[in-house]
Amino acid sequence: MNKPTKWLIQAVTPLDRYVGDRVALLGDAAHGMPPHLGNGAGQAIEDALILGNAIAKSVQSGTADIPKILETYNAIRQPFGNFVARETKRAGLLYDFTDEAGFEGLREGDKVSLERLAELGTEINEKWAWTWTASALDDLKKVEAAFQ
Fold first, then answer.
1. Could you tell me which residues come within 8 angstroms of residue 34 by beta carbon, excluding any fewer than 6 positions away?
2. Cα 24 from chain centroid (whole Å)
3. How far apart are CA 73 and CA 42, in angstroms?
4. Contact 37, 91 (CB under 8 A)
5. What sections of the sequence does the record tag as coiled-coil (predicted)?
6. Is the residue at 8 inside a domain?
7. Burial, 137: exposed, middle or buried (Cβ in 10 Å; 0-12, 13-18, 19+)?
8. Rounded CA separation 7/143 (Å)
9. Would you say 129 and 122 are in contact if contact means Cβ atoms under 8 Å apart?
10. Domain of 49?
11. Cα angle vertex 20, ends 15, 25, to 5°?
């Protein structure tokens, strides 16, 4: 790279709610996160899936109950979206050998034991586990149950 640049990675402070009145936040507006687990766009898609299905189920039941649609979306997506944002931030701290990851006082050129690196690798691997065990299909079942 001839002229590398730096830019700040922005993140949203975890929100208590993703909805208010008749407005819903989705994607980065609700849970903007760093790229360390590669899940930001996926979370936005899941937000749209859940909100879209809540709208469809409400209409199919004979009404467009906006407050119920929004509360259903919030109840399902807010806890998980905030979880993903927290885990993503934590993964970045691990990747960067920060004090928060147990590397107090580590300076450039210092050596880290192979055992500690193995522990770090295990911890990082565990940070990814939810990405192949969690499914939006379970959340779709919650939407269905909310409108029965």
1. 9, 11, 88, 89, 92
2. 16
3. 16
4. yes
5. none
6. no
7. exposed
8. 39
9. no
10. 19-146
11. 60
Query: What is the rounded distance in angstroms from the CA atom of residue 105 to the CA atom of residue 113?
Result: 15
**Is 9 within a domain?**
no
C-alpha distances (whole Å) from 13 to each of 32, 34, 100 are 8, 12, 18
Cα separation, 130 vs 13, whole angstroms:
21
Full-model pTM: 0.86
Q: Is residue 47 part of a domain?
A: yes
Query: SS3 of 63, please?
Result: coil
- Is the Cα torsion angle 126, 127, 130, 131 positive or negative in sign? negative
Instruction: Look at residue 1 and tell me if it is in a domain.
Output: no
Q: Consecutive 10-residue runs of the chain (148 residues): their mean pLDDT?
A: 82 95 95 93 96 96 93 97 93 86 85 91 90 91 95
Residue 24: strand pairing partners: 19
Q: What is the Cα Rg of the chain in Å?
A: 19
